[in-house]
Design brief:
heterodimer, A: alpha+beta, Multidrug efflux transporter AcrB transmembrane fold, Alpha-Beta Plaits, two-stranded parallel sheet, B: Multidrug efflux transporter AcrB transmembrane fold, Gyrase A, domain 2, 14 helices, 19 strands, elongated
């Protein structure tokens, strides 16, 4: 039997301060980058490198027979009045460039959405005629416009608001579900962990100025679902162990549960990581932002379900327990552990004595 | 008993697999031999799966109907009608004011005698339909305000009408399989148009956008034989009306010029000096009274075209009455608030006319087409335009398929290495998941987009998660000293709770993506959800059955390859 982890006994919770410090540092780094860029605009950057989907503007994908230098293309566009055009080569297709034209001025610049493509086309005629159909089958043609994305300012703002609303709504949906299946402390801990993943990922996008497009938002939402998965697997085990081992402390149960599910967590995350890596390497330019977001998200999602969600949940539960105990003693009759039972006791699937006995054996092994 | 159960499960699985396979690669026609070659299978697959625009190429346009302009025009029209109604009833209205700012649409009428306001209101009500306007009086004025509810209803109606007109124009110009639907929130008045295969949407964009608002209107001028009264500037025209244009007059530019592009788009502005004329509003007849319009050559052999049109009976009657009563008066053909031509009435005309304006063949044909489909109730503006050429789409398909295959291979290799015999079990479940997922996409008529392919790749990773959960649990149970059958039983039972929880949370976030997302993102959500649902069948039911079959082969199983 090939096994990654054999009988691990790591005290995860003992390191919770370090974990949380690392996470806070990462989030602060991302936040710092966003604030710094927003305030100072080094090299003309902003907090986030928003794509046309959110900022508005036009992106024209052009394939050339003989690709002119970026300067040559920029000059041609400049002469045609497209002064702020950004020329971006496509890494996996040497003959293709993306020409990005920001929205002119403030407000809704209607003309942009309408004419970006034709203005670029007119400018590029300097290099030769555009192909009617296929670039390769047209001997005279010099280039071909392969695709355009043009988004007006209003539509961009709409998409932006929608993206934020959807992400928050999804988090709330998950919170409600976990609160319903577990306890609300579990739900809150899971959602905090996921929110952390989203923030860390966004931080990377700010620091490295990767472009945020609609597909990146899709990746963030997927990441929300995926990261919660990991957390749930751990929480499920904690719930099960708490039922079976009433005498053990939550601290010990949580550590054991993380260790018991560790190989599953690592294998699953590793496999998702592999398939996302395949996407980063072979998925092409269009999916790059999407797959990068997932790659980072999967890594931190796995980390956060162990290092963030569980410590928060334990801390919270312990505080509640302490508060309950204090309340109980003030009512004169100390009940200690029994006080918490109503909340933590099985609600849905009561364990039959037989399975309980059997599983106890499992717990010992 | 157990044997029978196993047989039943196997039959279900085989049937589902075969049906799934047929849905995916089965031809939708009577099968030929060549349908079973590699190329044939690929072709059928491409036919069966509905590809999104980002993969097969095409144009995606989002436009907004400027409903505020529509309401403004409606308010102005009603103001004229209100004033005329008051005048006809003999109340000598002094002034009518129109407010159309900040979402307020209000008509304010001032009459000399404040005591007669309710009589004025009665008189106006008889002539003008103001049922959707709330009225209020103050001093010697009456105001009619369009209620917010009515604004919404009217704006919605305008968008609906624009939607219909866009459909008919797309149909007339021959765009194949266009998709037209409302986009975003109801109140955003957006329309989405998707046109597969259209790489360069310029002409279609102009056609859809063309307001094609045609009016035949009385030009305010001394009658023929004196020449038509024109002004050199808008200010001059205004001055002739005493500083401001009353609500029954409009000042419009008048210019004859080339129309080199489609559907009346502005061309060379400097060609001829721009003049201004004053016309009477409302017009005698408008575009809604058109019966037909077509492009004809102006002179035989010339490269110059004009539009001839004919009117519907009701419009023709109105037009005939007016022309009969106004011999020698000047009449203008107004297109999109610009006077195209002016002529004096020689004799009574009933049902036909022409628009001359030195059109090219293409622009005349496009204009005729848009006139036939009717005028847009309000101007539209484009908010999003996305085009994908076929080779870009093909590239995306290639890289998507390549990434999926690499991801699949990596996952399969790991599962076989790590779980050995049971790894085969998981791989079978995974492949079945892939087949059924494609079948699901086809059955639900979902669109496969590039993010959708990403969803498939992600599902590969997440689908084996269920297997990993189960296998790890079985291993644990085995370590604790259970017999193989009970370890398998327990492994599935325990893992199932977790599997359900993880699936539900992922489905929750995908649902939000589906509800709020558009186009490609919806495709992603759909593949992810279908993949996860099928995963419950493949990773739990199918894997379980394979284990059951393994266990049933020998009476006493000493070891389980896991």
């Amino acid at each position: 039997m090939v096994q990654i982890f054999k009988d691990v006994k790591i005290d995860w919770l003992a390191n919770r301060r370090i974990f949380i410090a690392v996470s806070v540092l990462l989030m602060l780094a991302g936040l710092g980058s966003a604030i710094f860029r927003q305030a100072k605009h080094p090299n003309g950057t902003e907090a986030f490198n928003l794509g046309v989907d959110f900022k508005g503007g036009t992106v024209v994908t052009v394939r050339f027979k003989q690709r002119p230098s970026a300067e040559a293309i920029r000059d041609v566009l400049f002469n045609a009045g497209l002064k702020d055009a950004i020329i971006q080569p496509v890494t996996d297709k040497p003959d293709t460039v993306l020409i990005k034209i920001p929205l002119e001025g403030g407000g809704e610049s209607q003309a942009q959405v309408d004419v970006g493509r034709s203005r670029v086309r007119d400018a590029l005629r300097t290099f030769g005629p555009e192909a009617e159909h296929e670039l390769n089958s047209d001997p005279n043609a010099a280039y071909k416009i392969e695709g355009t994305d043009a988004v007006g300012a209003v539509a961009g703002a709409q998409l932006r608001n929608k993206a934020i609303a959807v992400t928050l709504a999804a988090l709330v949906g998950i919170l409600v579900y976990i609160a319903f299946r577990f306890e609300w402390t579990y739900g809150a801990a899971a959602v905090i962990a996921v929110f952390h993943d989203v923030l860390v990922t966004l931080g990377f996008f700010s620091i490295f100025q990767w472009e945020i497009s609609l597909t990146v938002i899709a990746a963030l939402l997927t990441l929300v679902g995926f990261s919660v998965n990991d957390t749930i697997v751990v929480f499920d085990r904690i719930r099960e162990n708490r039922r079976l081992r009433r005498r053990d402390s939550l601290y010990k149960i949580t550590n054991d549960s993380i260790n018991q599910t560790l190989s599953r967590t690592v294998i699953t995350s590793g496999l998702v990581f592999l398939s996302v890596l395949a996407m980063v390497l072979f998925g092409g330019e269009v999916l790059r932002g999407f797959s990068l977001a997932l790659l980072i998200g999967v890594a931190f999602g796995t980390y956060s379900s162990i290092a963030i969600a569980s410590p928060i949940m334990v801390w919270w539960e312990q505080r509640l327990e302490a508060a309950n105990r204090a309340a109980a003693t003030s009512f004169a009759r100390p009940m200690s552990a029994a006080v918490r039972t109503p909340a933590s006791a099985p609600r849905r699937d009561p364990v039959s004595p037989q399975t309980q006995k059997r599983s106890r054996g499992a717990g010992r092994a | 008993m157990k044997k029978k159960n196993l047989l039943q499960r196997s039959i279900i699985i085989v049937v589902v697999t075969l049906v799934g396979l047929y849905i995916v690669i089965g031809p939708r026609h009577r099968p030929h031999l060549r349908d079973f070659t590699w190329g044939g299978i690929k072709g059928t697959l491409a036919d069966n799966i509905h590809l999104g625009l980002d993969l097969k190429g095409g144009s995606h346009l989002v436009m907004r109907v400027k409903t505020d302009a529509f309401l403004k025009e409606l308010t102005q029209g009603n103001a004229v009608a209100v004033q005329n109604a008051a005048k006809d009833a003999g109340f000598q209205p002094q002034d009518v004011k129109v407010e159309t700012d900040n979402g307020n649409y209000r008509i304010t009428l001032t009459v000399p005698d404040g005591a007669k306001l309710s009589d004025v209101e009665e008189a106006v009500k008889k002539k003008v339909d103001l049922s959707e306007w709330s009225s209020s009086t103050r001093g010697n004025t009456i105001s009619w305000t369009l209620t917010p509810t009515a604004q919404r209803t009217l704006a919605d109606q305008a968008t609906e009408q624009a939607d219909r007109i866009i459909r008919s124009r797309l149909d007339a110009v021959g765009v194949a399989e266009p998709l037209v639907q409302r986009h975003g929130a109801q109140s955003s008045h957006q329309i989405l148009v998707q046109m597969p295969g259209i790489q360069d949407p310029e002409r279609v964009k102009q056609l859809l956008k063309a307001e094609s608002k045609l009016e035949l209107a009385h030009v305010v001028s001394p009658p023929s034989p004196s020449p038509v009264q024109t002004y050199n500037s808008e200010e001059e025209a205004k001055a002739s009306l005493g500083g401001t244009a009353p609500s029954n007059r409009r000042i419009l530019p008048y210019q004859e010029r080339n129309e080199p592009t489609a559907a009346g788009q502005a061309a060379d502005e400097t060609q001829k000096q721009k003049k201004w004329v004053v016309i009477e509003t409302p017009a005698i007849v408008d575009g809604s009274e058109l019966r037909n319009a077509s492009a004809v050559q102006s002179r035989a052999g010339a490269d110059e075209y004009q539009i001839t049109f004919s009117l519907k009976p009701a419009g023709a009657e109105k037009f005939g009455t007016w022309t009969g009563a106004n011999i020698n008066e000047y009449m203008g053909v107004v297109l999109n608030d610009e006077v195209k031509s002016i002529a004096y009435i020689k004799s009574q005309i009933f049902d036909s006319g022409e628009i001359s304006g030195r059109f090219t063949k293409q622009s005349a044909e496009d204009l005729a087409l848009t006139l036939r489909s009717g005028a847009l109730p309000a101007p539209i503006e484009y908010q999003e335009e996305r085009t994908v050429g076929p080779s870009l789409g093909a590239d995306s398909i290639r890289s998507g398929v390549r990434a999926s295959l690499v991801g699949l291979l990596l996952v399969v290799a790991f599962m076989l290495f790590y779980y050995r015999g049971s790894g085969v079990n998981a791989v079978v479940a995974l492949l079945l998941n892939m087949i059924l997922m494609l079948a699901g996409l086809i059955v639900f008529g979902a669109t496969l987009t590039l993010p959708g392919i990403a969803g498939i790749i992600l599902t590969i990773g997440m689908a084996v998660d269920s297997n990993v959960l189960i296998f790890e649990r079985i291993r644990e149970e085995l370590r604790s000293g259970k017999t193989i059958p009970s370890a398998v039983d327990q492994g599935f039972a325990r893992a199932f709770v977790t599997i359900i929880d993880t699936h539900v949370t992922t489905i929750i976030s995908s649902l939000f993506l589906f509800v709020f997302g558009t186009g490609p993102l919806r495709g992603f959500a759909v593949t992810l959800v279908i993949g996860l649902l099928i995963n419950l069948f493949s990773a739990v039911y199918v894997s379980r059955t394979i284990f059951m079959w393994e266990l049933s082969r020998k009476r006493k199983l000493e070891s389980l390859s896991i």
